[in-house]
Specification:
Number of domains of chain A: 1
Oligomer: heterodimer
Number of strands of chain A: 10
Shape of chain A: globular
Helix content of chain A: 25-40%
CATH superfamily of chain A: P-loop containing nucleotide triphosphate hydrolases
Radius of gyration of chain B: 31 Å
Largest interface: A-B, 28 and 22 residues
Largest sheet of chain B: 6 strands, mixed, barrel
Structural class of chain A: alpha/beta
Number of helices of chain A: 7
Number of helices of chain B: 20
Strand content of chain B: 15-25%
CATH topology of chain A: Rossmann fold
Order of helices and strands of chain A: EEEHEEHEHHHEHEHEE
Largest sheet of chain A: 6 strands, mixed
Chain lengths: ~230, ~475
């Protein structure tokens, strides 16, 4: 089943003197349960593409359909709401709320969704278990390692039961052990719960784990490889 | 969660929040204290106006107001008195004779109003009898013939008041808190008699330092004050027949209120001692002072009496003491204007702090908006943070302010160093601040409004962030 369908997607940035085409006429379909890495050199358009898929940036032309929703048809308020209920985000710098505990960082997003309190408590504990941090529910981000923080960030992204999770360079700030640990968790979630992950990365370890690798160069897809696992 | 997150957010930068909270605390303490001081002052003024000076209601002959002539007594007095006796709103009333007189002692003279009273009735209406200067006689509790009670001011004008540091006075000062070194410095002027306060102050200046005078001058002056009680004062006034009449009265007591003008103008005499001399034989009066029940509106009562007795001039305390009335009526507005100014000034500090907080959290706000926090929630979070920040300071400020008021309401605040000016206008130099619960409720609402208004600029700043750009911020 298609989760994301991108048609003729183009993003042009108008600088003071030059126009930069960050994404150039991209067509792409992401199916449910994919574990996809978008790779490419710096400036190839990976982050711009992910931002547009995540509804954080708008395309110059073309369209993005998530599920049955064409993002172009949504106003900014609807877009925020759409992101809240349909897309999970994992950022390079973890971006947890420092004054909230690991558990609160996870439950916060479900509270914004208006889920019942009982259900929030139950799911928070479940997700923390899934990312191997059941015993760190009450820990603040500054009491956690980088790897643990990123696992909380993955848990937060999962909490809203999104259609897919976008992870922009999720391992860039992690050491080898933490990276492997994080990737194992995400791969496990993907396999067991059929959660769709889309990464942008430079990290060969992520690429090795991915089952589909999309290579971008100058905003164009130059390679789209499906691994047989 | 937004509430809890907002609360936690204000403690991220404890030092900065503490500074803002301290500023709000100090501002609110200042506002509460100023309001308490003003309320205390106004309430004391209103109390003095009603229970010392003018009563709730004054009833007089219509013509008496235009020309305070002895002949303008209250018409139909019996009917008026019967009405007052039967009116359930009336607590007490007192009939008074009022004679414009010239008072003369062997050393001085002054013009004043000689107020003839029925002692028992007057004590129910006026509290002048409670304003007697200590050790300076009584309010007619004497077997002396033809007694008169005059004010401290009148005593000074008639030169029956003097200042003397007698051996007895020095002994009493030695028993007080005044250091012996200061008392020993008084020796050169001991035993000397000063006939005015000005001369006594001059004498003190020659032996004591300025700081010693500031600290102990009041107590020394008070102990050294001496009134020549039983002095004979000759009062000259016009009788009912238009002829000049004289009556010699003996000073039996000295009173002192917080209104210098009232003190200067009024001397009290028993009506029976003065009425026959003035030519009154059948209980005529110039004025009736009326005290009403607490919950009765004096203006309504005035209008009722006016309707019943068209030939009378009936005035409420608001008409007779407009300064006190106006201050009392507009006091609430003054409080909120003061508090409003303080909070308005504080709002700039609060806005600045919140803008700094937004700047520091740009990346986090970008993340929150990216993961689905809508503008309404962002605005609410920033607004709650601002309100919490302001409210913490305000609550601490109100508690501290309350305790300051509580303490000073017992000890009082002495403005006597500049008190002469206040007392000349009828305002007490000794103030006992007080505050009402209603004011705290008003301040809380004002603080919340300030918090909401102060949050608008920071919240707009936060809402103007674009998530995609904000996330990239380092």
């Amino acid at each position: 089943m298609k989760v994301i369908e991108i048609k003729n997607l183009t993003k042009i940035y108008n600088g003071s003197s030059v126009q930069v085409t960050a994404v150039d006429n991209v067509d792409l379909v992401i199916e449910e349960g994919e574990f996809t890495a978008i790779v490419g050199p710096s400036g190839s358009g990976k982050t711009t593409l992910l931002n547009m898929i995540g509804g954080l940036d708008s395309p110059t032309s073309g369209e993005i359909v998530v599920g049955n929703t064409n993002l172009a048809t949504l106003n900014s308020k609807q877009l925020v709401d759409f992101r809240l209920h349909n897309i999970g985000f994992v950022f390079q710098a973890y971006n947890l709320i420092p004054v909230l505990t690991a558990g609160e960082n996870i439950s916060f997003i479900m509270e914004m969704q208006g889920k019942p309190k009982k259900m929030i408590t139950k799911r928070t504990i479940e997700i923390l278990k899934e990312v191997g941090l059941a015993d760190r529910e009450k820990s603040r981000p500054n009491q956690l390692s980088g790897g643990q923080q990123q696992r909380v960030a993955v848990a937060r992204a999962l909490a809203s039961k999104p259609k897919f999770i976008i992870a922009d360079e999720p391992t860039a700030n992690l050491d080898t052990k933490s990276t492997e640990n994080l990737l194992d968790i995400m791969e496990e979630l993907n396999r067991r719960e059929n959660i769709t992950f889309i990464f942008s990365t430079h990290d060969q370890r992520v690429v090795n784990k991915a089952r589909r690798i999309i290579v971008l160069e100058d905003g164009k897809i130059v390679k789209d490889e499906q691994k047989n696992v | 969660m937004i509430w809890s997150l907002s609360w936690k957010n204000i403690w991220r930068n404890k030092k900065r929040s503490f500074i803002v909270i301290s500023a709000v605390t100090l501002g609110v303490v200042a506002g509460v204290f100023t309001a308490g001081l003003m309320k205390g002052w106004v309430d004391q003024r209103v109390e003095a106006a009603i229970y010392t000076e003018v009563s709730h209601i004054k009833i007089r002959n219509q013509d008496y107001l235009l020309n305070e002539e002895i002949k303008y007594t209250i018409p139909d007095q019996e009917k008026v008195v019967a009405e007052l006796k039967n009116n359930p709103d009336v607590v007490a009333f007192s009939n008074r004779l009022k004679l414009t007189a010239m008072a003369a002692s062997s050393r001085g003279n002054t013009a004043l109003m000689l107020v003839g009273i029925d002692l028992n009735d007057e004590k129910k209406v006026s509290n002048v009898f409670e304003k007697m200067v200590p050790n300076a006689g009584t309010f007619f509790e004497t077997d002396m013939g033809n007694p008169v009670v005059i004010s401290d001011r009148t005593a000074e004008a008639l030169r029956i008041k003097s200042y003397e540091l007698s051996a007895e006075v020095l002994d009493s000062l030695a028993q007080s808190d005044i250091p012996k070194s200061v008392i020993s410095k008084l020796e050169p002027i001991a035993g000397k008699k000063f006939i005015t306060e000005k001369l006594f102050k001059k004498g003190l200046n020659t032996v004591l330092s300025k700081s010693e005078i500031n600290k102990y001058g009041g107590a020394i002056r008070s102990a050294a004050t001496h009134y020549r009680l039983r002095s004979k004062i000759v009062f000259t006034f016009t009788g009912t027949d238009g002829e000049m009449r004289y009556q010699t009265l003996k000073v039996c007591g000295i009173y002192k209120t917080t209104n210098a003008m009232f003190d200067q103008m009024n001397a009290f005499v028993l009506k029976n001692d003065i009425a026959p001399v003035a030519g009154f034989t059948s209980g005529e009066n110039h004025e009736i002072g009326v005290i009403l029940k607490e919950d009765v509106n004096a203006r309504h009562f005035r209008d009722e009496m006016k309707g019943k007795f068209s030939g009378l001039n009936v005035m409420s305390w608001q008409d007779l003491a407009p300064d006190a009335s106006m201050s009392s009526e507009y006091m609430n507005i003054y409080y909120y204007i003061i508090m409003g100014f303080i909070l308005f000034a504080l709002a700039f500090g609060i806005i600045n702090t919140m803008l700094m907080a937004i700047l520091e959290r740009t990346k986090e706000l970008g993340m929150l908006m990216a993961i689905g926090m809508n503008k309404k929630r962002v605005f609410r979070m920033i607004m709650l943070e601002t309100i919490f920040l302001t409210m913490v300071g305000a609550i601490v400020g109100m508690i501290l302010g309350y305790f300051v008021i509580l303490i000073t309401s017992h000890t009082g605040l002495d403005f006597s160093s500049v008190g002469e000016g206040f007392e000349a206008m009828g305002w007490s130099a000794m103030v006992y601040p007080e505050i009402e619960l209603q004011f705290f409720i008003g301040v809380t609402i004002l603080v919340i409004v300030t918090g909401i208004l102060s949050s608008i600029i920071p919240a707009r700043k936060a809402l103007s962030l674009k998530p995609i750009e904000a996330i990239r911020t380092e």
